[in-house]
Fold this protein.
Amino acid sequence: MTIPLFDCRLSDAVTRDLAPLLHSGRLAAGSAVGELEDRLGAYLGGPPVVALSDMTQALALALRLSGVRPGDEVATLALNCMSSNSAIALVGAVPVWVDVDPATACIDVADLAECIGPKTRAVVVYHVAGYVGDLGEVRALCDAHGLPLIEDANAALGAEWQDRRVGSIGDYAVFSFYANRQLNGIEGAALVCPDAIIADRARRLRRFGIDITRFRAADGEIDPALDVAEIGIAASLTNVNAALAGLALDNLDARIARNRENVARLTHDLADVRDVSFVAEHAGTRGVYWVALLRSPERDRLMAALKESGVQCSKLHQRNDVYTGFGAASRTLPGTSVMEQEMLALPSGWWLSDGDVERIAVAVRSAVG
């Protein structure tokens, strides 16, 4: 039986709890969206949250709200998914590729400092696979240069830096509700905003620029007197997606705790295996382990052997600086090169049984020989 890298299945309890909504007719719009926004804001410690259709649109909107315009530069990791960095291209900006520290898989702050120039308008920090770097140094660097910090926390909901949940440190943050993330909404995202005024603007922009609370008159027809002063996009989260994500939020902390237990056990059980080392947590942080990241100089051979034994695993990311469509300048990124050659993502999720975790450890040990 195959051990999956991700488990996107919806439980019988979730489908049962969702059934009344599915029969209500309130599929696109409804109260579940606002309820999810409020609950997530409270979970993060109070910042306003705006729900959107997907993480790419959420990141693009964060860049727009940050003042990024066509031709501007945005510092970002090359070690990321296209669903993140494509947002930079969507607003007409150009990425400046930043390196990672291969020991932690997190942003190399010294290299970030080298990337900031006169055309830089924002910094996007990806918490790679739910691992968290030194946000204090990044925050200080952004503040020194007057740059907005956007946390790409798409797979990091519940992770912590200095006892604060990620998403509450940057000026903006984005979380994903894609089916394999911490909150399975099938699709969707949350945009964390710095204040209520900007959050209200984001809510208008997610719906073409319309103020939905005033768009229709008392008779239900569109109010011709209401102006649309800033044109937005089609990026509203559906009521169904919001309800699903809300149900997943109910037991989020318990699932994160199980992820951490699984990674701790894998790290312990494989501590003496040659040519295998797990990516370390940065001091003062707690990851949520979307996957367990290890490094091995024999990564490709190890990956093939694990897949053959029924343990799903993955290189996870293709470095984005190889794609010519971004129009970005090439930079030497030694840490990224190490991760490209050595990084392997193992299953670590809450759905794994003790037997599954043991089987993964045995498979790794056997593959290394």
Summary: The first helix runs from residue 12 to 22. The two ends are 22 Å apart (CA to CA). Residues 253-368 form a domain with the Aspartate Aminotransferase, domain 1 fold (CATH 3.90.1150.10). The mean pLDDT is 97.
